[in-house]
Design brief:
Layout (H helix, E strand, L loop, with lengths): L11 E5 L4 E3 L2 E2 L3 E4 L2 E3 L2 E2 L2 E4 L4 E3 L3
Parallel strand pairs: 1-4, 2-5, 3-6, 4-7, 5-8
C-alpha cells in the first residue's frame, strides 16, 4: 500500500470527504486534504487536492 506521508512528516489534520460540499472560507494550520467540493477561499500551510476535488475559490 502506498503511503503519502512518511513517519517523519506532519499528519493529515483536516479532511473534506468525497461526498462533502463546503461553502465558505477555510483558515487552518497544518495539512488540509480535499476530495469533495469547496466553494470559498482556503488559507492553510499545506493543501492536498484529490482527484475528485472541486475548488471554486482561491488557495
Amino acid at each position: 500500500m502506498f503511503s503519502m506521508f512518511s513517519k517523519n512528516t506532519e499528519k493529515l489534520e483536516s479532511f473534506i470527504g468525497i461526498n462533502s460540499h463546503f461553502k465558505g472560507d477555510i483558515k487552518t494550520q497544518g495539512t488540509l486534504r480535499i476530495d469533495g467540493t469547496v466553494e470559498g477561499n482556503i488559507e492553510t500551510d499545506w493543501l492536498i487536492l484529490g482527484e475528485t476535488s472541486h475548488l471554486k475559490g482561491d488557495a
